[in-house]
Automatic annotation (TrEMBL):
<dbReference type="InterPro" id="IPR050316">
    <property type="entry name" value="Tyrosinase/Hemocyanin"/>
</dbReference>
<keyword id="KW-0479">Metal-binding</keyword>
<feature type="signal peptide">
    <location>
        <begin position="1"/>
        <end position="23"/>
    </location>
</feature>
<feature type="domain" description="Tyrosinase copper-binding">
    <location>
        <begin position="79"/>
        <end position="96"/>
    </location>
</feature>
<keyword id="KW-0186">Copper</keyword>
<protein>
    <submittedName>
        <fullName>Di-copper centre-containing protein</fullName>
    </submittedName>
</protein>
<dbReference type="InterPro" id="IPR008922">
    <property type="entry name" value="Di-copper_centre_dom_sf"/>
</dbReference>
<dbReference type="GO" id="GO:0046872">
    <property type="term" value="F:metal ion binding"/>
</dbReference>
<feature type="domain" description="Tyrosinase copper-binding">
    <location>
        <begin position="224"/>
        <end position="235"/>
    </location>
</feature>
<keyword id="KW-0732">Signal</keyword>
<dbReference type="Pfam" id="PF00264">
    <property type="entry name" value="Tyrosinase"/>
</dbReference>
<dbReference type="GO" id="GO:0016491">
    <property type="term" value="F:oxidoreductase activity"/>
</dbReference>
<dbReference type="InterPro" id="IPR002227">
    <property type="entry name" value="Tyrosinase_Cu-bd"/>
</dbReference>
Length: 237
């Protein structure tokens, strides 16, 4: 599969350039075919329905499993490393192409969790209309209702998708919009921005929704559809 070659190339690049390249230079080029991703709450009712339908079809086709495997392969090379942001951008775009096989004009949305930062568990995004909420604590934190109560196939021992909010049914606060803006404004180069964005904002959401039992805190995190919305927001920043 072409995607496997792309991702392997990114991993190999990440290994080879960690100690030799200058990451402080960013070259801007014009995009020939620009498109715009929406915040999920800005999507129309029809777009939300199409998104959920496409995600379920991707899951049923088992294509989703390949993205989980690629994320496993990337473990120590594409996380907390210079290649963190471009690697995940490629992963998002390739996944987006799978969605567009069903709905060519549909794009991955992002979840601006900065809006919900002080009480993330109350976000409408974490309701069954959208992407579902906490797992069932009486059933090992399995997500047993909503559109995405499914198993995480590539890792059999993982079983069904799990979420465990990290504060007794609630979620500890995420960085707010002002804090995110500070990170962007105060970072003087790519290296600094990459470190700051990957350590707290990125990790806070994985930890907050996944905690000890949930999949978002494992390398099988792409098995949770929230992974893609979260990383689309990180990519937008």
């Amino acid at each position: 599969m072409k995607l496997a070659s792309y991702l392997l190339t990114y991993v190999l690049i990440g290994i080879s350039i960690q100690s030799s390249a200058n990451y402080d230079t960013i070259v801007n080029t014009d995009c020939q075919y620009p498109y715009q991703r929406k915040e999920i709450r800005s999507m129309t009712v029809l777009e939300v329905k199409q998104l959920i339908k496409a995600l379920r079809k991707i899951r049923e086709s088992l294509v989703w499993d390949k993205f989980i495997r690629y994320h496993f392969v990337s473990d120590k090379y594409a996380h907390f490393q210079p290649i963190f942001l471009p690697f995940h951008r490629l992963l998002l775009r390739e996944f987006e192409k799978e969605i567009q096989k069903y709905y060519p004009k549909l794009y991955l949305p992002y979840w601006n969790w900065g809006i919900d930062s002080q009480s993330p568990e109350k976000s409408v995004v974490l309701t069954n209309y959208y992407f579902g909420g906490n797992g069932n604590s009486k059933e090992g934190f399995i997500l047993d209702e909503g559109h995405f109560a499914w198993d995480v196939v590539p890792v059999p021992e993982e079983g069904y998708l799990k979420r465990q909010f990290d504060s007794f049914g609630k979620i500890k606060s995420f960085p707010n919009l002002e804090q995110l803006e500070d990170i962007m404004n105060e970072s003087t180069n790519y290296t600094e921005f990459n470190i700051k964005i990957s350590i707290e904002p990125h990790a806070a959401v994985h930890q907050g929704v996944g905690d000890e039992e949930g999949h978002l805190t494992t390398m099988a995190s792409p098995g949770d559809p929230l992974f893609f919305l979260h990383h689309c927001f990180i990519d937008m920043l």
